[in-house]
UniProtKB/TrEMBL annotation, chain A:
<feature type="transmembrane region" description="Helical">
    <location>
        <begin position="188"/>
        <end position="210"/>
    </location>
</feature>
<dbReference type="GO" id="GO:0022857">
    <property type="term" value="F:transmembrane transporter activity"/>
</dbReference>
<feature type="transmembrane region" description="Helical">
    <location>
        <begin position="267"/>
        <end position="283"/>
    </location>
</feature>
<feature type="transmembrane region" description="Helical">
    <location>
        <begin position="6"/>
        <end position="28"/>
    </location>
</feature>
<dbReference type="GO" id="GO:0005886">
    <property type="term" value="C:plasma membrane"/>
</dbReference>
<dbReference type="InterPro" id="IPR001851">
    <property type="entry name" value="ABC_transp_permease"/>
</dbReference>
<feature type="transmembrane region" description="Helical">
    <location>
        <begin position="241"/>
        <end position="261"/>
    </location>
</feature>
<feature type="transmembrane region" description="Helical">
    <location>
        <begin position="89"/>
        <end position="111"/>
    </location>
</feature>
<dbReference type="Pfam" id="PF02653">
    <property type="entry name" value="BPD_transp_2"/>
</dbReference>
TrEMBL record, chain B:
<feature type="transmembrane region" description="Helical">
    <location>
        <begin position="118"/>
        <end position="139"/>
    </location>
</feature>
<feature type="transmembrane region" description="Helical">
    <location>
        <begin position="64"/>
        <end position="82"/>
    </location>
</feature>
<feature type="transmembrane region" description="Helical">
    <location>
        <begin position="148"/>
        <end position="166"/>
    </location>
</feature>
<dbReference type="GO" id="GO:0022857">
    <property type="term" value="F:transmembrane transporter activity"/>
</dbReference>
<feature type="transmembrane region" description="Helical">
    <location>
        <begin position="94"/>
        <end position="112"/>
    </location>
</feature>
<feature type="transmembrane region" description="Helical">
    <location>
        <begin position="200"/>
        <end position="218"/>
    </location>
</feature>
<feature type="transmembrane region" description="Helical">
    <location>
        <begin position="284"/>
        <end position="309"/>
    </location>
</feature>
<keyword id="KW-0812">Transmembrane</keyword>
<keyword id="KW-0472">Membrane</keyword>
Amino acid sequence: MDITVNILLTIATAATPLLIAAIGELVVERSGVLNLGVEGMMIMGAVGGFGAGYLTGSPWIGLLAAIAMGALFSLLFAVMTLSLATNQVATGLSLTLLGLGLSGMMGTSFVGQPGERLPNLDIPGLTSLPVIGRLLFGQDPIFYISIALTAAVMWFLFKTRTGLTLRSIGDSHASAHALGIKVIRYRYLSVIFGGACAGLAGGHLSLVYTPQWVENMTAGRGWIALALVVFASWRPWRVLAGAYIFGAVWIGQLHAQAFGIPVPSQMLSSLPYLATIVVLVLISRNKRLTMMNTPASLGQPFVPDR
Amino acid sequence: MMRLELVKRPQRSALFSALSPFMAFVLTIIAGAIMFALLGVNPLTAFRIYFIEPVSQVWQLHELAIKAAPLILIAVGLSVCYKANIWNIGAEGQFIFGAIFGSAIPVLFPQFEGPLVLPLMLLLGMVGGAAYAAIPALLKTRFGTNEILTSLMLVYVAQLFLDWLVRGPWRDPQGHGFPQTIQFGDSAVLPELMPDAGRANWGFVFALIAAVLIWILMSRMLKGFEVRVLGSSPRAGRFAGFGLNRMVFFAFLLSGALAGLAGISEVSGAIGQLQPVISPGYGFTAIIVAFLGRLNPLGIVAAGLVLALTYLGGEAVQSALGISDKVARVFQGMLLFFVLGCDTLIHYRIRLIGLALTKPEAAAKLEAAPKLKEAR
């Protein structure tokens, strides 16, 4: 029983950064913007979070710094694609490349240093309950944020007027603009929200998952988060399910390596990436589902005319 | 509080199309100076070490050519993809598979020698790169799967596969346990161009030939026209009878083959054996080269040399000033950012607007005010 609980806990820890980054990107894409810079914003969040935590000794300040770093970095993308109408694919790619470089440079002095870890929740009486105690009341704070965030985004997008407006911009920015909606302003806020989420996801990696700084420690998680949004056909609850499936794959291959299964470890390590390809193929085979849910103006630049 | 406003130009500006890379370069230099100052280094000293010292002697120019060759080879292939609006961002993986396929001959048949070895290796390298690029192309055409994500995921898979090969089945049994293959035999090594002057090898010549061939393809042949039409207006392309699916395969196979050629040239030329890591991110840096070179093969040659210099400069400041060589990646990222931003000027004029109302807006307000009162 204890082993099952432990495995479930590690799956949740592996799924949390994927979930947060993907939920943020989902909002961005729902507003019609494709930001391929998730990996870059995430790694900036990771280095910012680790750095602030390490220098101040407080993982909580690290957490805030991670969010701020992701948001600030995404602003760069927003100015380029929204104010200067640059190609979103190319700009997103360059955000990732710049983020990987910048984080490597900023983190040079952090390599090998012990980091600060966010403490797990500990409620007397509840956390010590058998089985469900640690699952429900004993996880890291970002886990709870990720669940609350998913619920909040679900509510915001589908139950509020502002959410409806945001989705309408994603489907047709020209019509939205004609109705007097501030398309660019909505998109700025969405991109920054996505950046903050990606930064938080990166902070989870360097403040909870492995509290240290390792270059390229995101290891493609930002890209997997992007794939999750497609896999989920832009629905928050499916992102939640997808993130946990991927968390399970990630943990599964680690356990398989530890058990010494007679398969090369590199092959097991490539499983999450191969699984991403497989689910993308499976989901894109269903053309109707994809067509129906893809924000129609995704990735197209918008310049308001006067 | 100021606001930017874009005003569409009646037609694209040839002036800014030519100027934009240079403006981007100047902006990168300015941003770089600020960065060096923040790091506590005199920017002028840093720039001398970064941009001038690495290319001040003949043998160093050879090193520049070695770094530029794979960048140019990959980027000219990618330029065809991006012109056609097809997003192959997995060139790094195709580079690795080209290297693996080509290396199969010297690693598995070390006794096989003679003048046939190298051409076969290069050919196999191109086949390997193209075959690996065929996967995202197939998935895109058969199932409509997004090629950005699949081609990128395959990079991680290729890196892990290479790691397994050189630690497992292809490891040199006499290599004292080091994760690497045997050293390639003499007939499997890409010859140097001018062995007395420096290390530059035939890879650079391949890059120049590829750039010229792709330039002819894109500007003088029907296929190039097809690429441009399908890229700018798929609908118009369909009316003209150009097949989008065929184009996806064409672009992926071509860019994959060139990335594969770059991979095998790098391994048989500069390295001489397979190792767990054979590329400092050439496949990704080539994306920057392609854009900085305006997706034009001849521009890409120039851009390839500039980006090669950022690698050399990064190594130079690391050894001279103790700054992380990641500074190279930062310079590369900034260059791409600035060139994309400056490209906006090709299609738009930029107006700065203060928060003060423009005349028509103010007039409209004045007119509306009394009406509002009446309505109440």
